Amino acid sequence: MKKESIIAAIEPAVNELNLFLEDVVITLAGKHSMLRILIDGETGLSMDQVTEASFKISEIIDQMPDIGQTPFTLEVSTPGAEYPLTLARHWFKNLNRLVSVTLLDGEKFTSRITSVENDEITFADAKANLTSAKISDIKSAYVEIEFK
């Protein structure tokens, strides 16, 4: 199983569903493999959308000659909170969410995303202090889980 060939095969079908292919993760465990496909959309995905994508992806992968001989489990899901925010669309999708951010200079903070303009993200803390940063200046960022 080669990640690049899987991406090349399934990405057009994912795009036809107006979704994004976020990642392909192949985990080898002895004679069995786990193939995890992460998809996302402009907004959160419904179970129906994930199911439809899973069906299409499964059909394509079943037709790939180099995969057919190796037993594997296919998992199609959306990125969880542990998935980093790296692209402008990730930030826009999570507008008004609380995020944990580490800048390239080592500064760390937790704040709420208040706006996304091109490469510029504006944050507001609980005291309404505003901070902004360019996506290119952010080393890592993750959505914080909030319980209301």
Helix-strand layout with pairing:
Layout: H1 3-16, E1 20-29, E2 32-40, H2 47-63, E3 72-77, H3 88-93, E4 98-103, E5 108-117, E6 120-124, E7 130-134, E8 138-143
Parallel strand pairs: 2-3
Antiparallel strand pairs: 1-2, 4-5, 4-8, 5-6, 6-7
Helix pairs in contact: 1-2
Question: Overview of this structure, please?
Answer:
The protein is α+β, with helices and mostly antiparallel strands. The protein has 2 domains: 3-77, RimP-like superfamily, N-terminal (GMP Synthetase, Chain A, domain 3); 88-143, SH3 type barrels. The chain is 25% helix and 39% strand. The protein is built from 3 helices and 8 strands. The strands form 2 sheets. A 5-stranded antiparallel sheet has the order 7-6-5-4-8. Strand 6 and strand 7 form a beta hairpin. Helix 1 (3-16) crosses helix 2 (47-63). The chain is elongated and about 55 Å long. It starts with a helix and ends in a 5-residue tail after the last strand.
Task: Summarize this structure briefly.
With 148 residues, this protein is of the alpha+beta class. It has helices at residues 3-16, 47-63, 88-93, and strands spanning 20-29, 32-40, 72-77, 98-103, 108-117, 120-124, 130-134, 138-143.
CATH class category of the largest domain: Alpha Beta
Here the CATH topology of the largest domain equals GMP Synthetase, Chain A, domain 3
Count of the separate structural domains: 2
CA radius of gyration is 18 Å
- Output the number of helix runs: 3
Q: Give the name of the CATH architecture of the largest domain.
A: 2-Layer Sandwich
Shape: elongated
Estimated share of beta-strand residues: 35-45%
Tell me roughly what share of residues is in helical segments. Answer: 25-40%
Q: Which stretches of 5+ consecutive residues score pLDDT under 50?
A: none
Overall pLDDT level: 88
CATH superfamily of the largest domain: RimP-like superfamily, N-terminal
Strand order of the largest sheet: 7-6-5-4-8
The H/E string reads HEEHEHEEEEE
Question: Which assembly state applies to the chains in this document?
Answer: single chain
